Amino acid sequence: MNQNLKETVLDEELENRLLQFTKSLGGRMPKEIKGLKVDYYQYLTYKIENGKVSEVLP
User: Fold this and answer.
1) Radius of gyration of the chain (CA)
2) What pLDDT digit, counting tens, does each position of 2-54 carry?
3) DSSP sequence for the chain
């Protein structure tokens, strides 16, 4: 979405850069429920200003 909350299309280069950026983020901790490690997923929202990520929101 753009700043006006309208759907927009990202170019392939930006998509690839966001994927690499996401893979480089640290801090993800394995989830444990009742002593068992489980798979999970998390949605991240990126705020992009002037072609750069200015915020990552969970």
Assistant:
1) 15
2) 888 899 888 898 889 888 988 888 777 778 899 998 887 878 888 888 878 89
3) --TTS------HHHHHHHHHHHHH------EEETTEEE------EEEEETTEEEEEE-
Backbone angles phi, psi at 30, to 5 degrees: -60, 140
pTM for the whole structure: 0.60
Residues paired with 49 in a beta bridge: 52
Round to whole Å and give the CA distance between 45 and 43: 7
Contact 27, 42 (CB under 8 A): no
Under 8 Å between Cβ of 48 and 57: no
